[in-house]
Amino acid sequence: MVAVVTENLQNCKNQHSYNKFGMITQVSPCQINNPDSIYFVIALYPGSFDPITFGHLDIINRGSRLFDQVIVAVLRNPQKAPLFTVQERLEQIRTCTKHLENVKVDSFAGLTVEYAKLNNAQVLLRGLRVLSDFEKELQMAHTNQTLWDEVETVFLATSNEYSFLSSSVVKEIARFGGDVKHLVPPHIAQEIYQCYAKTHPA
Ligand code: PNS
Fold first, then answer.
1. Cα of 157 to ligand 1 centre, how many Å?
2. Contact 146, 28 (CB under 8 A)
3. What's the helix, strand, coil split of the chain in %, to 5?
C-alpha cells in the first residue's frame, strides 16, 4: 500500500489516479497541499551513466511503473575520467526519459544516502545483471544501510537481453569503430562516435 489517505481528505473532490500496481500516479492538488496525507515512494537510481545504455533505461522504465517517483542521479566523481561531462550525461538521460512524467534527472556529489535523505528517497534502485554484480551490489546495499538504516535497496533483475551490457562495453566497442546502435539510443551512439573521432582522429 503506497497511499495513506487520511480522514481530512474524505471531502476532497479531486481524485487521485492509480496505475496497474495500485500505486498513485497522479496526486490531486488538495493532496499536494497536505503532504501528511499521502505516502509517496521515491526511488533513487544513482550511477555513473557514462553513458546511459538501454540496460539503464530498462531499469528506469520499470522503476517508474513501480515507484511514485524515480530520481536518476549522476554521481559527480572527480576521481574518474569520464567520456562525457556530468552536464552532457544529464542532457542525454533527460532526452531519453522525457516521456516518463515521474522521472527526475539530477546530479550529486558525496554519499548516495545523504542525497537520498535530502530528496526524501526511501529506496535505492539498482539493476542486477550477473552473479558478479550481486557481490558488489550487496556490499554496497549493506554499506548504505549502515549509513542510514531507513533506506531500502531494491534490485531489479536486468532484462535478459541486456544482461551483458554496460557503459564500458559500449565505449570499448565504439572506440574500435563497432556498432553500438543496439546498445544505446541513436543520439547517444552519435555522441560517442563524435567523442572518439575527436580524441582518436582517423
Ligand atoms: O554506475 P555505477 O558506477 O556502478 O554507480 C556506483 C554508485 C555511484 C552508485 C556508487 O559508487 C555510489 O553510490 N557512490 C557514492 C559514494 C557512496 O555513497 N559510497 C557509499 C556506498 S558504497
1. 18
2. no
3. 40, 20, 40
Query: Distance between CA 119 and CA 68 in Å, rounded?
Result: 13
DSSP 130-193: SHHHHHHHHHHHHHHHHH-TT-EEEEEEPPGGGTT--HHHHHHHHHTT---TTTS-HHHHHHHH
Indicate which residue of 64, 89, 126, 129 is catalytic. Answer: 129
Q: Is 200 a residue of the active site? A: no
Ligand 1 mean position to 46 CA, how many Å?
Answer: 7
Residue 46 has pLDDT above 70, yes or no: yes
Q: How far apart are the first and last CA of the chain?
A: 57
Q: Respond yes or no: is residue 129 known to be catalytic.
A: yes
Place of cell 530528496: 119
Which of the four pLDDT bands, split at 50, 70 and 90, describes residue 39? confident
Residues 6+ apart with CB under 8 A from 87: none
Which neighbouring-strand residues pair with 69?
42
